[in-house]
Amino acid sequence: MTASPASAADTRLLATAALAQLDQIILGKPQQVRLSLACLLAGGHLLLEDVPGVGKTTLAQALAATLGLEFARIQFTSDLLPADLLGVSIYEPDKREFRFHEGPIFTQLLLADEVNRATPKTQSALLEAMEERHVSEGGVTRPLPAPFFVIATQNPASQLGTFALPEAQLDRFLMTVSLGYPDPRAERELMLTGGRRDAVRGLHSVLTPATLNEIHHQVASLHISPALADYALALVTASRQHSDVQMGLSPRAALGLLAAARAWAWLAGRDHVQPEDVQAVFGSVASHRLLGRSSGVGSPEVATQLLASVPIP
Amino acid sequence: MPTLTAAPAPLPTVSTEPLSRAALMLTLAAVALCVLPYVTRMPWWASVVTGLLLAYRAAVGLGRLRPLPAAVQTSMLALIAVGASLGLWSNFGTLSGRDGGGAIFVMLLALKAVETHNRRDLYVLALLGFFVTITHFFFAQDTLTAAYALLSIAALCASIALTERPSLWPVRADSNAHLGQDNLNVRSAVLTSAGKLLLQALPLAVALFVLFPRPNGPLWQMPVASKGTSTSGLSDTVNPGSISNLATSDEVAFRAQFDGPTPPPYALYWRGPVMEQFDGNAWRMAPQFRVAPQIQVSGASYNYTLTAEASNQSWVLALDAPTNIDPAAGLRITRSMQVIKPSLIGSRTLFKLSAAPNYRYGLTEDPYLLQYNLALPGGNPRLRELAQSWKTQSPLGRVRAGLNVFRHGGFAYTLKPPLLPPTNGLDFFVFNSKRGFCEHYASAFAFMMRAAGVPARLVTGYQGAEANGNYLIVRQANAHAWTEVWIEGEGWIRVDPTATVSPERIRNGTSSLPDAPGLAAGDDAPFQSLRLRIDALQNLWNTWVIGYDGAQQQLLFKKLGLGDFGSLKLVLFSIALIALAALPLLLRRRPKPEPLVAAYHLLSLRLRLPRAPQESAADYLTRAAQVYPDQAGEIASLIQRYQTLRYGPAPSETAVHEYVSAVRGFRLKK
Question: Which chain B residue shows the shortest CA-CA distance from A312?
C-alpha cells in the first residue's frame, strides 16, 4: 500500500476495504465493527465491554493488522505494576549508567486485556499515558509512537477481584462497544469455518500509519454546522439534567461526541456531520459516561432516552 | 449497548418527558401543604388514606418502594375511590357542597397524585392544588387563611417552576463536600423563581380585585357548618340562677367602624334578643312579630359598619336605636327593635347600619303586648310583696324605688355569684346573697317592675366596646343584660340596674373587675398593644378585602379622586388595564424560523405526517417511505437536500430558495 497522502475519495475507498476485511473476521456485527473503526479514525481509545469469548481480542488484533499498526497485548492482572507496563530503567554496570527498557506500551496499538483486573495504580499509569501520549520515567519524558491507540477490554459480568475504572478514567475512552453474542447464523458459520485466530494472522494491512494520519486530518476537517453544534449541546445539557444520572457529559465528552460523529460521517462519505451521525455514535460515546444514580453503572437506556427526548434543531 | 438499528422511535412529546424527581417531590409536598387544613374537616380515616397515598407516591418516586404492578395499582386505586365515596357519603350524607365535596375532592386529588407519570401530570396536580387552596375560603376568610393560602400558592409556584425548568435543581455527583451549600443555592433559586412568578402576577391580581365590577353584597351565601358547632355568644334563654361562674372570653363578637365620630361609651348598647317570657326562673324570647316599631329620633344619628363574626345565630347586634336598615342585605327589624338576618351568620359578615342614640319608641304599644309584659308566674313572695308596696307611686317613682333597692341594699357585682335555689331564687338574690352580675340585676329588676304593675322585659346584647384606632372591638366579655320598662307617654325606656351597682362597668364600657379579662387594664401593656395592632390588621382585612363590595369600591374610587365610576366605564377600564398587562406577552418577540426549517416543516404538512421534534430525518424518511411508497424517491431527495443544506457548509441563498420552492411544488399523488 502506498504511504503517500491520498485524496479523500481514495482514503475512503481504503477505509471501506478495511471495513469489509474486518467484517469477514467479526461475523454479523457490522455496526459494532464500524463503530470501533470510527473510534480509531477519530483518534480515540476504545473500550470493549463484554463477556469472555465473543471476539474482543480478535477484533483488536484484526484492527491492528488491517490498519497496519504495530501491536502489543498485555494481560492485566492484580499484580501488574506500572513498570511492567511502561518499562523500567536498569543499571548497567559495564556502562555505569541506567538504561531504559521500554515496556509493552511502546507500540502503536496496545490491547489492554481485562483492564479492570489491575490495581488503580497501574490503571492510572495506563490512562495517563493514553491522555498525554508520552511516558515519564526517571525524570525523562519519552514520547509514545504515533499513532497510539489503546483498546482495553473489560468483563462486566465478573466483578470479583476487579477494580472498576473511576468515572474520570472512563472519560478517557472515546467509545465503549459491546459485541455481544453473535446471531445464530454467524455462530453456525463460525463453527463450520473454525475460529478466527488463524484468519487474523493471515490478514494483510489495508491502511498504513501514514494513511491513518491523513484520514485523521480529513475527519477533523469535516464541517460542523451551528445547528448541529446546537444539537450536540442540547444532548449534553439534557444529560446533565437527567434525574437518574450521577454526572452529566463533560465538555471533553462533548468534543469526543463531535469527533466520533465526524468519523462516522466520514465513513458514510459526507463532508459534513448530520444529526443521524451524532445519534449513531451517541450511545457508544455516552453510555459509559452516564452512570446511573441508583445502579452506579453505565446504562444504554439513559442514552436512548436522551435521544428520544431531545429535539433536533 | 444501545440498539443501533434504525427502528423508528416512538414519538415522545415534551409533556411526556420523564419526571424530574425533585419536581415530583416538591409538587407532592406543595399539594400536601394545600390539603393539610382538611385534616380537621374530614373524617380521620380520609386524612389517613390521603396521607398514605401521597406518601406511597413519594416513596415510589424516591425509589424507596417498588411500585405495585400497574394492574394491581389501578384496581386498588379504583377500590379506594369507591370506598372513599361511600365512606364520605355516609359521613356527610352528600358528595357535593362544601364539606362532602371538599373531602371527596381532596381524596381524588391524592389518587391523582399516585397516577403521576409525566410532566403534564405534575402540572395537573399543581392546578388541582390551586383549586384546593381556594376552597379553604369556604371555611374561613380571616387573615390566617389568607396567609396560609399565600404559602400554599408560593409552594405550588415553586413546584411549577421546578417542573418547567428541572435545571434549577442540577443533578450532582456524590460531591458531598459542597452538597449542603449547593442545596441552599438550589433552594433559593427555586424560591426566587416562584417569587418572581408571584410578583409578576401581583399587579394583575390587584387590578382585578380592585377594578372588577362587584355586586352590592356577597356573591354567594356561606354555608353554615353541617354539624352544629356551638359558638359562644348570646342565647335565646336567660336563667341567671343557674350560672355560678360566668366564663368571660375576650373572643371578638363583632367590630364596628363609624363613619363619623364614635358615640360615647354609655350609649353603646348593642341590642340582641329581647326576653319577654318569664317562667319564674328563666327568661325566654317571645314569638316575634315583624311589625316595624315606631321610633322617634331626635338628635344625631351615626352611620357605621358592623362586622359580625360567625355566630350561627341570626341576630345582628345593632346599636340602639337602629334607624336605617340596609335593605340589600335582607335585614329585618322586629317589634322589639331587634335586627334580624333571615339566615344564620355562618361566617364573618359585614352590615351597613345607622343608629340614633336619642330616641323614643313604642309610644302607642298594643295593650295586649303590654299585658304580656306584665305576666308574672308565682314564686318569690318577698320580692313581689316589696314591689307591690310601691303601687301607690307613679310609674317613674316605682322605677326609681326599684333601682334604690340595688343602690342602698349593699349589693355587689361579681362574675362568680353563688347559685340561686330553684324556687324563689330572686328572693334569695335580693334579700340574702346580694351578689350577682348583670343578668341577676336585670332579671330581679324586671320581676319587681312587673310585680309593681309596670310592663318590663329583659334585653340581652352587648354593652360598651374597646376602641382601637378608628373602630370599636366588642368582645364576648362585653355581653350584657338590661331592662326595658314601658311608661305611658314615654314608650319603652332602657333601665340598666347594673349601672347602679357597678357604674364604672357602664361608664368605661368594659368590665373593670379584677377577675374579668383585663382587656383595657394596664397590665401586660406591650402584649396588649400588640394584640390591638393585630386586631387592627384583621379589621382592615375585614373592611377592605372581605367587605370589599360595590359600595366600598365606589368609595375607594371617590377617595382616589376618580369620581363616580359607572359599571360600564369600570368594565371598559378593567378590560383596558388587563389588556395592558397582557401587552408584554403579545409583544414578546419570537425568533423568526429560518426559511429552511420552515420549508422542512411545510414538507411535513404536505406529507400530512407530523414530525416529532426529536425524530431524525432518517427515521422520518423511513416513515414517510412506508406511507407513500410511490413517492419515496422524491421524498427522500427532498429530505436529503434539507439535511445537506441545514448541516452542510453554509448554503447559498439561491440554494435555499430553490429548496423552498421545491418543497412548495411538492404534491402528494392521489
Answer: B614
